[in-house]
Every structure is written in C-alpha cells, then in structure tokens.
Amino acid sequence: MIRYPNIIFLGAPGSGKGTVAKQLVDKYGYLHLSAGDIFRQTLNQNTPLAEEVNEYIKQGKLVPDNVTNNMMKQYIISAINNNEHFILDGYPRTIDQAEFLKTICDIDLVVYLDISEDLATKRIIGRRNCPKCGEIYNIYFKKPIKDNICDKCNTVLSQRKDDNQIVAKTRFQTYQSATSPLINYYQQQNKLASIKANNDTNVFAKTCSLIEK
Q1: What does the alpha-carbon distance between residue 33 and residue 43 come to, in Å, rounded to a whole number?
Q2: Could you write out the DSSP letters of every residue in 22-42?
Q3: Which site among 52, 115, 143, 173 is 20 to 30 Å from 121 CA-CA?
C-alpha cells in the first residue's frame, strides 16, 4: 500500500480547504477529518456540549482548545489504528492545538491556502451545500444549472446559518489573530507549502504534486 503523507490544510474560512480535500479523497482515498463537520455532528447530538459548541460557532468564534482537542483526538487515533492517511481541515487552529496534535501523531505536510479577505468573504456568503450528496456550490463562482437545485441529485440546496457577512468577517479576523501564527510554526519545521488560493483547480494540481513527490 502506498504511504501518502498525512496533511494539514491551513487557510482562512473560504480558502477552499473543504473543496480541495474532497478532490483528494476521490483521487487518493484520503480520510477527510473536517473539524467543522465534526462540530456539526456534535451539534446534532442534543447535549450540553452541543449547546456550548453552537454558541461559539454562531458567533464565528473558536471553540476552546480542550473541547476541540478531545473531539478531534478520537477521530485521529481511529485513523491511525486503521492505517488510514488523513487530511486535517480546520484543525489545528492554534499553537496550543498544534502542540497537542504532536503528542498523538506525526504530520508530514502542511498546505497553506493564501487568500484575500474579500475573496474569502464572497466564497463564504455565496456558498450553498447539497444536504443529500454533499456537493458544494457558490452563487458567485459555481452556480448550479437550476437555481438552488443540485445538479447531481436534484435536491434543494441549503445555506449554513453561519455563512453570512457579519460572521464571515468575524471568522476571518479570528483566523488572522489565532491561526495565522501556525504558518510560522510549521514553516520553522520545514513542513509548510504555500499556495495562492485564487483557483481551486490550481490548488488541487499543486497539492497533488506535493503529495506525489
């Protein structure tokens, strides 16, 4: 079995981490561990933890490190035990989370998707998701053929409650203050590769080149 590198995607909300990760899953069989998806699964559990996490997400704020670490740890350990190569998307988001991650696994490659705030905001507020097949659209950049209907399965598209102008701005500012220091952190470890995130196809091609080195 080919040993592909375990990857972290770094980048502001709207930089395309989820889109490119899905392409890598299809091509290489990666396990995509999206912190956002894991949090949303938690929100569906109707627990006190779900209520706590929901308040942070609605306001575009980071969930406390200890909560995030404990949720992500179980998924990462499961991947390691099953010999699965994985992509971490949206985790780690702080230096403390990165230090915790070092105690449970090795990361081979960190891909930083560099994007402007204006473009990231349009990607966030224009994003639409298919609740049935998971296909992602954008009313500015990737419109469905029929308005608000999935091209693949003919399902009505949905928009996340936190995909709005106010929350998008807060999330970008939170990223800049809390997450961007990870760029230097991984650069110092010679694990960081930076890619301009203006075009998903370009990002995918360059990431494939890094994986196949």
Answers
A1: 16
A2: HHHHHHH--EEEEHHHHHHHH
A3: 52
